[in-house]
Amino acid sequence: METWSEVAEVQPLASKIITNSMKKDRISHAYLLQGERGTGKEAIALLIAKGIFCETNAVNEPCQTCNACKRITSGNHPDVHWIEPDGQSIKIDQIRNLQKEFTYSGLESNKKVYIIKGADTLTVNAANRILKFLEEPSKRTTAIMLTDNSQAILPTIRSRCQVIDLRPLHPTMLQKQLIEEGMHERNAVLMSTLTNRIDDAFTRINDEWFASARKIVVQLIEVLSTNPEDIFLFIHQHWVTHFKDRNEQEEGLDLLLIAMKDILYYHIENEAGIVFFAPSDELLELAARRFSQNQLVAVLQAILQAKRKLKQNVHPTLVMEQLTLQIQR
After folding, report:
1. What pLDDT score does 253 carry?
2. 148: domain range?
3. 164-181 burial string, b = 16+ CB within 10 Å, else e?
4. Which of 126, 122, 80 is nearest to 99 (CA)?
């Protein structure tokens, strides 16, 4: 995202709040941008900085072509400072160095911007030091603090910032972000159905347990489609032993629900809706011959009922046995 118009597509409220304050020349002395990875925190911080320094004084959008905009993009503007965690945290020495910068005038103007990435990783001492700036704001200085974990921000810091909440990514936007960060397109489609967090998506896709879970769901559908008489043996030997605690059991049912929806979408020729399988997967055709559309609707309802039973603390093995019986009907 390089313009406020692009930000508005993903974060309309945040874009409106910040651009309105810029138009009225009421930029806050400190912002706290809080949202999960991929929600646009760094892009918004850069746009705020460009709005402050842009040489064309563009009201709606920074020009992106002036010397100031180009140097902010490249990270080489002398009056825009980035602070990032040194290892696992932002340490007090980093903030001491930042405080020294506070005492100097800007090199090219009377303005300065400080962007603190990973603000939730400030050590207690570092956080207390940064409060000095926040308690004595200067009209010439703007701090922009970025965090994935808003709960870890000290209340004293939060109360001195204009807090901008960034909403989770829309599935389509999440898919795009995941693909841009190197995830295979089909995996990105599935992950955007299961989560709205980039970190969680990559954690799952690289997890051996999750890979095995996907494989077991495929095998379950294959057994149901070709050897239904073996399904109870499969459930006890593979499903129950893999999906052990409540979260795993619910995730297994979520994957099964998505996979069975795919079969229904295959029936009605809605290729765009297919998520779990590749649209050309032969198992889709095989399962579609085994289950009619009406049967699939009933199966989806049975899976949802199974999820409710898990939440009601019904024994998970019993839940799966009952679900299997309902699917076989």
Report:
1. 96
2. 4-167
3. bebeebebebbbbbbeee
4. 126
Band the pLDDT of 199: cuts 50, 70, 90: confident
Residues 220 and 129 in one domain: no
Residue 182 lies in a domain: no
Question: pLDDT tens digit string along 212-229?
Answer: 999 999 999 999 999 999
156 shares its domain with 249: no
Give the pair of three-digit tokens for residue 77. Answer: 């503007």
Q: How far is CA 307 from CA 45, 200, 247, 253, 257, in A?
A: 42, 22, 11, 7, 10
Same domain (yes/no): 43, 154: yes
Q: Is 49 helix (H, G, I), strand (E, B) or coil?
A: helix
% of the chain at pLDDT higher than 70: 97
CATH of the domain at 223: 1.20.272.10
Residue 273 belongs to some domain of the structure? yes
CATH of the domain at 45: 3.40.50.300
Residues 64, 76: Cα–Cα separation, whole Å: 14
The pLDDT tens digits for 2-37 are 899 989 988 999 999 999 999 888 899 999 999 987
Total domain count, the chain: 2
Backbone angle region of 166, left / alpha / beta, with phi > 0 → left and psi within -120 to 50 → alpha: beta
Give the C-alpha separation, 193 to 172, whole Å: 10
Do the beta carbons of residue 116 and residue 89 sit within 8 Å? no
8-state DSSP, 136: S
Give strand ranges (E) for 128-183: 141-147, 162-165
H or E element: which one contains 222?
helix 208-226
Residue 99 has a pLDDT of: 79
Same domain, 211 and 153: no
